[in-house]
Amino acid sequence: MAIRVLLVDDQPLLRTGFRMILEAEQDLAVVGEAGDGLQALDQVRALQPDVVLMDIRMPRMDGVEATRQITGPERDGPAKVLVLTTFDLDEYVVEALRAGASGFLLKDAPANELVQAIRVVAAGEAMLAPSITRRLLDKYATHLPSGEEPVPDTLHTLTDREVEVLKLVARGLSNAEIAADLFVSETTVKTHVGHVLTKLGLRDRVQAAVYAYESGLVRPGAQ
User: Fold this and answer.
1) The dihedral of CA 113, 108, 82, 126: what is its sign?
2) What's the pLDDT tens digit per position in 167-219?
3) Which of 89, 160, 170, 177 has a CA between 20 and 30 Å from the CA of residue 133?
4) Prediction pTM value
5) What is each CA distance from 70 to 5, 14, 49, 134, 206, in whole angstroms?
6) Can you tell me the distance from the alpha carbon of 124 to that of 4, in angstroms, rounded to the nearest whole number?
7) For residue 167, what are the CA distances in angstroms to 110, 159, 181, 208, 215?
C-alpha cells in the first residue's frame, strides 16, 4: 500500500512542487493539502494520512500547535509529522520536535531526500539529519535549560553504556557512526537505543535528542 501524505504549507506553489515530486513515486500518494494548521487538523481527521509534511510559519494556527494536536495523546489517527524548515533553521523547529514531530527537513533539500525522509518517518523511525541536528539544537540553546538543573530521576535508570549512546544520538550521529565510535555492532547500538527509548518513555530518536539537551546531559556547544 502507498504511503498516504498530507501537504501542509501556506504557499500553493510549494505544495504543487512537493506534489509533483511525491506523485512520481509509486509508493507515495498525496491525499490532500492544507494551507494552515486548522485546515491540517480537519484534513488529518478526514483523510487519515500516514505522514503530514508540515510547514512551521502559517496563518491561523502554526505548525507547532498543529503538530501538538496531531501527535498528542487524544489524536485521531496514526499520522506522523515531518517538519519543513528554512535554510536558516527556523527557531520554532525545536518546539515542533518537543510537540511530537518525528523529524525535520530543509525546504531546499533534494527531491530524493524528501522522498526518503517520508519513507523513514512512515516506517516509524525518526528523521534526524546528522549534519544539521546538533547545529539546530546549539543554535537555539537559549530555548533549552542551562544544564545546571537537577538531573531527572529517569536518567538514572540508564546504564553507563546507554548514557553514552544517548549522548551520541543527541549529537546527531547515525547508528553506524555510534557503532564505530563505541567499537560495537550496529545491532548492539539499535538495542541500546531501544532500551533508552523504553526506559525514558520516549517515542523516537528526535525526542531522545531533545531530552538529552533538556536534561543537561548534553550541553549546547560541548564536544
Assistant:
1) positive
2) 888 877 778 888 999 999 989 999 999 999 999 988 777 778 878 877 878 76
3) 160
4) 0.72
5) 14, 22, 11, 26, 17
6) 14
7) 29, 12, 12, 9, 11
